[in-house]
Amino acid sequence: ALSLAAPDVRIEAPIPGKSALGIEVPNKEVSTVYLREILETPEFQDAASKLTFALGKDIAGNPIVADLMKMPHLLIAGATGSGKSVCLNAIICSLVFKAAPSEVKFLLIDPKMVELITYNGIPHLLAPVVTDPKKAAGALKWVVSEMVNRYETFSSLGVRDINRYNKLLSSRDPRQHQPLPYIVVIIDELSDLMMVSPVDVEDAICRLAQMARAAGIHLVIATQRPSVDVITGVIKANIPSRISFAVSSQIDSRTILDLNGAEKLLGRGDMLFMPVGAIKPIRIQGALVTEKEVEDVVAYLVKHGEPVYLSEFPSPDEEDADKEVEYGDSLVPEAAKVVIDAGHASVSLLQRRLRIGYSRAARLMDILEAKGVVGPYEGAKPREVLMTVEQYHRYFGR
């Protein structure tokens, strides 16, 4: 690096397939790779999978495309301004170029409220772009229930996955049976969701990552904070395909890729792509799609088709409002379960388990006492729990 006057070098030891060491020296003039270049290549055009998307070009200038079916989920991390959101835009644009709205549906979750909101109104959407982190947890729960419903349908027909199911339907009368679309769930900032409802979000992501592939449901998750409290061990274990853009330290690089190297990337689309089953990551210059191009694609799609949103898509606000009318607070059923499982009741217990403030926990305790779940206040002693598990199931219908 000193002799070459290079900003950062990566050492590839050894080069795969050769008995030699490789030293990657960044080009002083970074050439821009445009998304259109990759979309026009035979690698993308001739790909059979409807979930093929363009990534960019490798260090030799070869176009790199990937198939979300084979991944089957993708984790993207990198510091602010390193190219994550452009990569997400490239993935979405690639998929809408490859698949019709009846073949692929998107559920877009964008807590930042600015990156994915542009796609509102395209016919590929299952629901309007979700921007509220609380609603996002409900949206992920809906995806889990859709996965379970699909597996029950597959089981009743004796098929193993979505491809066999759709082939079976096409062999019957195609006018009576609509094929199931693939569902791609794209989360632009996981850390925001993990701060608001970590338990619900992690549980839903883990269930989907473990089981959703055969049901035709795929996750693409991006975060700018690749720390262990956001990308937990359970999430990492279930999402083997990963992309790392430039990060600030070796620790962040090891968190996302399990090896060093991402801290030496140049930013602006420079990435390391670790596909499932690979021993070493591939260095890629990511494809650039401009805001104007995204707006043109969205305008074209909106002009040629209307989205059919799910009528049964859950609205957590409505669910909470119903619970609030019925119980006085939407957390009453959860609070009752916490104290019954613990065998004793205290305000501090509710604060810890439900991650709420003192005033709300104290109000919940008053409601539980009024409903006969817990006994009266007894000074320093914890309150007695009066309701049994059977009574809880009868009363709360759970």
UniProtKB/TrEMBL annotation:
GO cellular component, one term: membrane
Chain residues that bind ATP: 78-85
Signal peptide (from-to): none
Annotated SMART domains: AAA (SM00382), Ftsk_gamma (SM00843)
Domain FtsK: 61-254
Top-level taxon of the source organism: Bacteria
InterPro entries for this protein: AAA+_ATPase, FtsK/SpoIIIE/SftA, FtsK_alpha, FtsK_dom, Ftsk_gamma, P-loop_NTPase, WH-like_DNA-bd_sf, WH_DNA-bd_sf
GO MF entry, a single one: DNA binding
PROSITE patterns (alphabetical): FTSK
Keywords: ATP-binding, DNA-binding, Nucleotide-binding
Database matches in Pfam families: FtsK_alpha (PF17854), FtsK_gamma (PF09397), FtsK_SpoIIIE (PF01580)
Gene3D superfamilies per record: 3.30.980.40, P-loop containing nucleotide triphosphate hydrolases, Winged helix-like DNA-binding domain superfamily/Winged helix DNA-binding domain
Similarity field: Belongs to the FtsK/SpoIIIE/SftA family.
Name the record gives this protein: DNA translocase FtsK
